[in-house]
Fold this protein.
Amino acid sequence: MTNRTLAQALVVFRKELRDWSRDRRSILTAVIGTLFGPLFVAFMFNTLASRQRQVEDVKVPIVGIEHAPALVDWLRQQPGIEIVAGPADPEDAVRTRQEDVVVVIPKEFAERFKASKPAIVRIVADSSSQSTRPKQQRVRGLFQRYNAEIGSLRLMARGVSPVVATPLGIEEVEVSSAQQRAAQILSFIPLFIMMAAFMGAMQIATDSTAGERERGSLEALLVNPAPRSAIATGKWLAGTATSMASVVISGGLLLVIFQSIPLQDLGFRFRLGTPHLVGTLAAVLPLCPFIVAVQMYVATFAKSFKEAQSYLSLLMMVQMLPGFLATMYPITSQNWMYFVPWVGQQVMMTDVLGGKPPTAIVFAAGAVMSMALAAIAVRGTTALLHRERIIFGR
Amino acid sequence: MIRVENLHKRFGNVNAVDGVSFTAADGSVTGLLGPNGAGKTTTLRMLYTLMRPDDGRILVDEVDAVADPEGARRQLGVLPDQSGLYPRLTAREHIHYFGELQGITGRDLADRTNDLVKMLDMTDIVDRRVAGYSHGERTKTALARAIVHNPRNVLLDEPTNGLDVMSTRAVRDIIRRLKAEGHMVLFSSHVMQEVSALCDTIIVIARGRIVASGSPDDLRAQTGHQNLEDAFVTLTGLGEVTSS
């Protein structure tokens, strides 16, 4: 590329960026694409945190507190448990979600308890409600413990070792659901970053190709004594710039969010910091030129902005596939995957976030691969701009 | 100067341009006159190198436009058939964009832009976004960016199509001025009066072929009609002339 051609490419580059920055629709798309991931993650962690708090500090409404003073006293001594008087109609209160769980102690409790018959304690809960399940489990667990304690005391009073009544020593290894959900959220991050890259590129990729055809401005542009390669390159560079900016902002916001969430307090073992961000950017930024180049090539076939957008949304779904599959079937990464653009970057990001970043050579290979393919796609677009059917077909 | 020899272009079974030859000299205005679909736009598209002729030769100031399209475009200023603008840019930015693509920068570009703005009477609108422009203002903007580099040869495809009186006058003034400065101006039109008012040479084209060419007086003499419009109808074979 000669100096003159390069200068012309830069003229096109500046014009496209200026045009883009004045388009409210394009700014909106970019902002949505950029902020979606960080906002989603912030929301998810916030939900997790509030559920965690739900289990830590539990308010238990009890109907019939006066029927079992000893039991209620014991409950009050448990850490994080507060006992309040229950509603008049417990079942209705739970059904209408006014209460997550209500405990009902019937009148005959004391009588049956004294007679060493099973004294009924009714736990009213809605098991179809996902969000209150941890609280229900907590309450249920309380009563099971009380049950076991009193059982042991009664056996001892009768001169029998409580051990006799526990033939099994059950040990539970707690893999808390919160931990799992956190891992799931993490597996979404590559997807969000890719989305930021894609949506950040989309506006210029369509507006500078199909949009140019739709407005009828392409013919006048191509009459300038600039080679088609300069024009295609300038547009491609502009799209690459917005795509990369989108990725950097999205990644930066994710970092801020992860650093402001007290992950340790939530019981998560992982930490995400600057090295993870750097690794993610190193994986994804070199992919941006490729994404833009492919989008531009596809959009050049379209006669209008709308047509281009429908092509690109199909493209987007195709590109999302590997990411979705990866979240559903966590496959072990194979070596060849690193060299497939789009797939490779997701694998690299997963490795980076998992604390096992690939070597610099893998990063470089992925970058070289996507740059090479980007160059081919830009050449393809340049060739399209020579076709009379593309220039004049409206 | 532009020299065209035996130009051919086919679309499927249609001979859009079928053996067109002519010369358009510097310091003169040449009109390409013909009904819609006669091959005017196709001819011009081949001249400004976005369409490749199937056969024939085009010389733009001795540059072979088929062999060196970019070199030819450097000698050309073009108002093409489709002169869409960028709605979010101002007229000044349009002129600057094309000027920079031509390699003009800085002071030169600013001065040239101001000259064009004055010439086309666009001072009030030049820094407004194009989105709100009238058709005439759009055409002026497209014309200004087309000749920002002061090209020797100017090609205009139906420049006054759909313009109001004032804009039409502005375009005609520009054409006369370019001629006076020694440029070659070639423009297409299907409006008789326009061509007769401006052109030194008229090339009448119908069904892809040149059916007559010469000065307005030549054409009157050739056809025996005093009225140029009658001459046009006779030449293009569009119908019988009953008047005159």
